[in-house]
Amino acid sequence: MIVKLIRMARNKGRLDGLRNNVFALTRYVTDADPWAMAMTDREQVRSLAEYLVHAKAHGIEPGEKAGHIGGRNLLTSDLPEQQVEMLAIASSAPRVEYPVVHIIVSWQAGENPTPAQLEDTVDIVLATTGLSKCLALFAEHTNTAHRHLHIAAVRVDPASGRAAGSEWLIEDLHQAIAILEERHRWAAEPNALYYASNGAVFDAHVRRFRTGTRGEKAVDPASEVMVRDASGRFIANRDWNGLPTDIANARADILRARAEARSWTDFHARLEVYQIAYRAKGSGARLHLGDASAKASTVAPDLALKQLEARWGPFSQHPRDQVLGFDAYRAAHQAQLKRLRADRAAAQAALDQWAAEQLASIATAKNRLVERAIRAERDAAQKELNSAFAAAIKTCTKGRHVTAESWRAAGAPADPPPVASPSLLLPADHAQEGTWTPPAGLRAEQHRWSTRYYDAADRLVFTDDRTVIVVHRPFDAGGLDTALKLAAERWGTVRVSGSETFRKRCAERAAELGIALVDSDNKPLVDRRPVAPIKPVAALAVDAAPSRPDHRADPARQAAVERALADLARLGAIPMRRREVSGRVGANAPLEIVVEADRFDPKPQLTTAALFDEDPLIQAFLEKQRAGMLAEISHHVRQFDVPLDRKAVVDSLRGPDGLGRAAFLAFGDADFQSMLERVALERVERQRTAPHADQQRRQKDERSRAQLAMLARMFHDQSWDPREWRSGGTGLREHGRSSAASAADDELHRLEQQRRARSSGNRTR
Predict the structure, then answer these.
(1) Is residue 594 pLDDT above 80, yes or no?
(2) Which CATH number fits domain 2-192: 3.30.930, 2.160.20, 3.30.160, 1.20.120?
């Protein structure tokens, strides 16, 4: 098993950094979606890249699907409420430097823990680290070669408000892994720091093995050093500078050889008697005895390489370790590593220069969102570049031969395999982005903020970070041509950053493709080969007022827009207004999302959606939301007769749904004012017709009262027969009836029939 700890620091004096950490991490853990952490805040982009780098270094693949999900010490069950809980506890301890921790536990391939084992893993990890009382959210990420568990925990005791756990959390985590490996019989890593026996944890570095009577290999009890007993009680730290037992036993012999030797040759010869070798390693040296080794300075300070060089001169290898040509091979490898590191520094400087130029070209007071986007893009591209160089350096390191024996077996090569440095394509100064389409000949794969393009052999050719293109295979003619065409289509003139060989290669290909290139100093980069002149091809023309590029075919942008639409659909009223175009705001002007910092209701989804609010799909969604908002506000002001000034309308709409804020932003827009004008006209028309309507109502009431009075007099003047009434008659006798009385009787009969019908219906119900 492998365990990794990522601590999330607090920004002093700022709650939003901690809030973003909690919200992004918990959403990532439960959704298994790296985009959840790739928010526009530059720290969050860095956190995501940091997680991916750590995960890859430990053989953990980013999760594609969340499996078993659970929590500890949380009062609520919904993610938004759990996020508020965790943020409240984390913010209550301002002196805790790292209030939130991200723990990653990974199993080896083929190990598939059950939900019960996952729950036990969480309990043991939290108990061993002293976080059992803390708020935690965990989820298993599946659909990868290695199953792994993510735990987001708040390192603050809810009861006391103090920091929970020790300052050696990584050591505690390794001890928890040892307990789990013994309990569930999971495989341990070859270089594990601890091992467990009967629930107790021991230091794996100092243990010795012995052979039993039957030839079995067992741990020598005399060499065991307990660091935690079976009850979980801490006993002692492991020996950080502990020596392997065999070297510790030979320490006196090594010091005697050092004291008696008069030169490097004499020293090597005296050590050889005890089968010990002294070899240079990096800037120091190590002592080797069988399979065990240790730093020479750890065995004794006087054995450090610098101490012995001061005594006997420059280090000289043992004749047995000296191999003709192997030293030159190692020097060539070191030179290649040095070149890769220098190229990485130059590429990072080129990215920083591009970002500085972009930021200097905008008015930061009015384009804060654009400024944040540029910085986020720069940081994401920086991480992608670092990842590419890390892969190149790893390839260089893995391809070398460490020992002379392996070097001889490989045919004694003079130089290590060449490793090309990743190179950059960037926009030239003042380049206007044009419409472009993704290359059709390569397989596109979205990766966080960027798109990676692979060839038919599934080799990574280049990575498109929108603001920069990282070329991973600079000497692949087809891949380089595709990257240059994409860059020229997007930017017109392309800036090339990389080694001298890469710049020459780009100049050769650009001359054939008709692409304009410049170097890091914005000087034209042309092919200097003595070849026949090539008919120049004009660079892409840039209009004085270029049209906005169409990014709808960009795979990464499509995914980001879809997520932004899903986030907007879950929100209430969206704060938006009409965008100013050419100094005017028309009724059909595009809508823009307005983002303002709110520590109590951050809604980080708005920040991401605002970056894409010019997209046609988001514009259509916003127009639909706008129409619904105007209809709701129109009905509200009609129903409650609200005054039509801004303050009265906004105050009447205040509530948790955000409708008041939306009305405040939209009040000055033409469509909002048109809605208010329609309401005002209706009120004027109602006031104009009100006197006539009141007069008609009074006349109708007077006629009704007169009719009732006439009916009352008829009843008073005529005799009444109840039996005739029960048999269906009018109840009035026929003799002496006038025509007026007859009409009144008919009307009375009709009214009585209606009353009886209603009474009958009520009894039935």
Answers:
(1) yes
(2) 3.30.930
